[in-house]
Amino acid sequence: MRLVHTSDWHLGRTFIDASLIDDQRYVLEQLIDIVKDTKPQALVIAGDIYDRPIPPADAVALLDEVLTKLILDLKTTVVIIAGNHDHPLRIEFGARIMENLLLHIHGNPDESRVSLRIPDDWGYVSLFAMPFMVPEKVREHLKEPMVTDQETASKAWINLIRANQSQSERSVLIGHAFVAGGETSESERHWIGGAETVPPECFEGFDYVALGHLHRSQFVSDERLNYSGSILKYSFSEATQTKSVSLVELDESGNCSITRCPLRPRRDVRCIEGTFSDLLHKAQEYPQRGDYIQVKLLDRGPILNARGRLKEVYPNLLEVDPVGLISLATESSQKTNDRAMSPTAMFASFYKDATGETLTDEQMSEFRSIIERVDQDEREAS
Q1: What is 35-96 written as a DSSP string?
Q2: What separation, in Å, do the N-terminal and C-terminal C-alpha atoms of the chain show?
Q3: C-beta separation of 332 from 338 below 8 A
Q4: Distance CA 337, CA 311 (A)
Q5: Residues forming a β-bridge with 179
Q6: Maximum CA pair distance of the chain?
Q7: pTM for this model (two decimals)
Q8: Rounded CA gap, 373 and 134, in Å?
Q9: How far is Cα 113 from Cα 285, in angstroms, rounded to an integer?
Q10: pLDDT at residue 83 in the model
Q11: More confident call, 12 vs 324
Q12: Which of helix, strand or coil describes residue 24?
């Protein structure tokens, strides 16, 4: 059994103030070529197809364009699950109709459509869908009052999957979750700190787990649990990463081998540093000056209109960080840290600064509940 595993397309995303739709089209054409060359039995997309619940029109058009080539031209079975950025009802519109056309979309949890059996030379492989688990919806749907967070929601859904799992067949789980031990990037949406994580032990019994949500391609605990990673670098913290899709091959016994197929970006993401004068006058010698660039200025004094003047020679300059200014060094460092903090950690820090006291466990739990309710309201209203 051969699968191509990808995730976290985030179609419609902007990088600071730059639209990435053409960059996304560029790498998705490479994905189509990979599918054409490797001829997998299925392509699995593990969530966050879009960047927001109501995607812009050009993002919807791009998804339509890519799926048309994969399904109608290459006759490839495609399995999609919703991530936390996707609206589950919108993304699975027409799902039951499209199953006859090799397209399988899973938005909300639905036990009647939880698995797909695909044949190969040794029998069948069952693909199980675990879209992003919203605890309130899982609790209501499964009538499980003990479901309170990501971990209990995921366990409840996996228990349901196990009831449909055949011990004589190989099995693959496609999930969108933050598995404990995974390494995050700034561009992921941090939910509620540790309350959102799922322990890797939840996924015992599957031959392969195709994960989405974390943007760095990585294995968690072992190669069986794999994040394919995002198709593009969506923050400067990812500048040194190599983006890829995963080619997964399962043998007769369910042992899997994984090859990361790199994706070449239309424009790379780079962080450069130097004094204003050096960066301005040596730009013509810098071959990658058309990439998406963050500049760290080492000057000790302020530079008038530094961003505007540098943008004349670095056309896709997105951020200027005046790290050399002593008076701004602490503030700049704090801004970087804030971007990486979860809402709970940020609120706890604010509360302590404002009151001089530390949040109690009860207060932390109440704040998490509020965040969950607000997020659910936003998703349903979007």
Answers
A1: HHHH--SEEEEES--BSSSS--HHHHHHHHHHHHIIIIIT--EEEEE--TTS-HHHHTTTHH
A2: 38
A3: no
A4: 26
A5: 198
A6: 70
A7: 0.84
A8: 10
A9: 56
A10: 95
A11: 12
A12: helix
CA distances from 148 to 144, 145, 295, 373 (A): 9, 8, 43, 12
Strands (E), 67-195: 77-81, 103-106, 115-120, 123-130, 170-176, 178-179
Q: How many CB atoms lie within 10 A of CB 15?
A: 20
- Give the chain's length: 382
User: Could you tell me which of 111, 102, 98 has the C-alpha nearest to residue 77?
Assistant: 102
240-175-368-149 Cα dihedral, nearest 10 degrees? -150
Q: How far apart are CA 261 and CA 247, in angstroms?
A: 7
Which amino acid, residue 187? Answer: S
Q: Are 42 and 99 in contact (CB under 8 A)?
A: no
If you search the block for the tokens 């670095």, which residue do you land on?
Answer: 314
- Residue 186 has which token pair? 């700034």
Q: Does 353 have pLDDT greater than 80?
A: no
Tokens linked to 326: 């002593």
Give the model confidence (pLDDT) of 131-159 as tens digits: 999 998 999 988 999 998 999 999 999 99
319-348 residue pLDDT tens: 999 988 844 445 445 554 555 566 777 788
| Helix 135-142 with 361-381: angle, nearest 10 deg | 80
Q: Which residue has the tokens 């969108």?
A: 176
Burial pattern 68-97, b for ≥16 Cβ within 10 A else e, equals ebbbeebebbbbbbbbbbbbbeebbeebee
Higher pLDDT, 314 or 359: 314
- CA quadruple 216, 221, 224, 225: dihedral positive or negative? negative
Q: Rg (Cα) of the chain, in Å, rounded?
A: 22
Q: Evaluate the CA torsion angle 62, 34, 7, 19 in order and state its sign.
A: negative
Structure tokens belonging to residue 209: 């787990």
Query: Mean pLDDT for the chain?
Result: 89
Alpha helices in the chain (DSSP H): 21-38, 57-68, 88-91, 95-98, 135-142, 150-163, 276-281, 306-311, 326-340, 343-355, 361-381
**Encoding tokens for residue 88?**
């589950």
